Amino acid sequence: MNFDIKEFNELLSAIHFFYGYDFTDYSEASLMRRIDHFMTSRKIDKLTLLGRMLAKDERYFAEFVLEMSVTVTTMFRDPAFYKSLRENVTKRLATYPFIKIWIAGCATGQEVYSLAILLEEENLLNRSVIYATDINQRSLQIAKEGVYAIDGLKEYTVNYQKAGGTRAFSEYYKAMHNHVMFDKSLRQNIVFSPHNLAVDQSFNEFQLIICRNVLIYFKQSLQNKVFDLFYESLCPFGFLGLGNKESLLFSDKKKHFEEIDRKEKIFMKK
After folding, report:
1. What is the pLDDT of residue 70?
2. Model pTM?
3. Is residue 155 part of a domain?
4. What's the angle, vertex CA 31, arms to CA 245 and CA 35, rounded to 5?
């Protein structure tokens, strides 16, 4: 579907006005694809009609937000990243009496449990709090439950081993028919909460912030805004982990960070 740019921008402005969700700095190509899919699946042929439906029905808008957010994730995604965290970051984290970590854009939570497992194996989970946030309320609910399809278990196990796991991965979950449930002990130190990187502010000071494969969907201006947010939210010498296609290279805050692992995109606030 070809969108009229004027109508497209008017739709984004209306969403911001009625609900406070700001999509104006998201990548246009990615956002258009998602809106097109949303409209096609509901047999809506005009942006103006979509705008009217979103404005008058909050539940319909909630469905819209769910489809605009990215929910693709897996346990120990990019295992080398977690191995680098284990080797380059956990020793510094161990020097703090209490560790606060923010996983921004946590999707359905697999990467949150991955980090909890890593911290447990480094004897740090009992004095850590992981704040896991996302714009997508349905994804957050899945993350809170910690129940996932058993189909992904083979991939999860291989990733865990590549990430430097020190135990049997089966210690961390129980199999139930076609699903696995991750151990409640991992969830005790996790706080799941909604947070919109485009408009919400800092809410704590952290020793580690992880935001992987989220910023690629933002324009440079919004990326800079989020990097400012992360900079404000990190303690001195705190760590920032990004996705493998993301970079501080064009950020205003680049000079305030030191590269810890260039390949795995791990940085430390100077």
Report:
1. 62
2. 0.84
3. no
4. 145
